[in-house]
Amino acid sequence: MFRMALRQILSKGRRASSVGLIYPSRRSYVGLPDEVQMLKDMVRTFADQELAPMAAKVDKEHLFPADNVRQMSEMGLMGVNVPGEFGGSEMSALAYAVGCEEVSRGCATAGVIMSAHNSLYIAPIMNWGNDEQKEKWVTDWASGGKIGCFGLSEPGNGSDAGAASTTASKVDGGYLINGTKAWITNAYESNAAVVFATTDKSLKHKVS
């Protein structure tokens, strides 16, 4: 029941976005915008009914809550502020933050999966990819149940991007990546990854 209701909210959010009803940067609000408050209520219900009862088992047994993640995808939460043309729900960053907070309240594991997928996998492609890349690597991830991950951390240097040892060498048809990543959220379940690699180790944090 709440899945259908949230879909209606997301659809309303898409229409409202063009007239500035759900973006706090365009208008001053007291409290949450109506659409975001409705989303908050729906996701809280989902978290209480579906996530919280499984949370202890997920943590204790180190499980990936695949069924819950599939539900989150069906609800539009795995592409909350991705444009509709790329399979997303077209809601605001505020809606994403509120939705992720409510998911995490029910199950911290599900919240991390959602945030790593949206912020670390989808966001870099949406911000710096071209339309062809977005169509290929975001559309099914925002709407079709595929999971993404973010390959930065390495065994020898943690999350220091400037010290990364993974290299990318240009070859016919793309790049050959050589290196090892570790502690990557969603790695085993992901269908694609944004991978940090360097074409010139001497540059460290600089770009060519």
What does this structure look like?
This protein has 208 residues and is mainly α. The chain has two domains: 2-143, Butyryl-Coa Dehydrogenase, subunit A, domain 1; 151-203, no CATH class. Helix content is 48%, strand content 9%. The chain is built from seven helices and four strands; from the N terminus they run αααααααββββ. It has helices spanning 2-17, 34-60, 66-74, 93-106, 108-128, 131-137, 139-143, and strands at residues 148-151, 167-171, 174-178, 192-195. The strands form two sheets. A two-stranded parallel sheet has the order 1-4. Strand 2 and strand 3 form a beta hairpin. Helix 4 packs antiparallel against helix 5. The relative contact order is 0.12. Residues 13-29 have low confidence and may be disordered.
Radius of gyration over C-alpha positions, nearest whole angstrom: 18 Å
Tell me about the largest β-sheet.
2 strands, parallel
State the domain count: 2
Q: Based on the coordinates given, report the CATH architecture of the largest domain.
A: Orthogonal Bundle
Can you tell me the overall shape? globular
Structural class: mainly alpha
Q: What is the distance, rounded to the nearest whole angstrom, between the alpha carbons of the first and last residues?
A: 52 Å
User: What is the CATH topology of the largest domain?
Assistant: Butyryl-Coa Dehydrogenase, subunit A, domain 1
Order of helices and strands: HHHHHHHEEEE
Number of DSSP helical runs: 7
Low-confidence parts:
13-29
Query: Looking at this structure, what is the CATH superfamily of the largest domain?
Result: Acyl-CoA dehydrogenase/oxidase, N-terminal domain
Would you state the CATH class of the largest domain?
A: Mainly Alpha
Report the average pLDDT across residues.
Answer: 86
Percent strand equals: 5-15%
Number of strands: 4
What strand order characterises the main sheet? 1-4
**What level of helicity do the residues show?**
40-55%
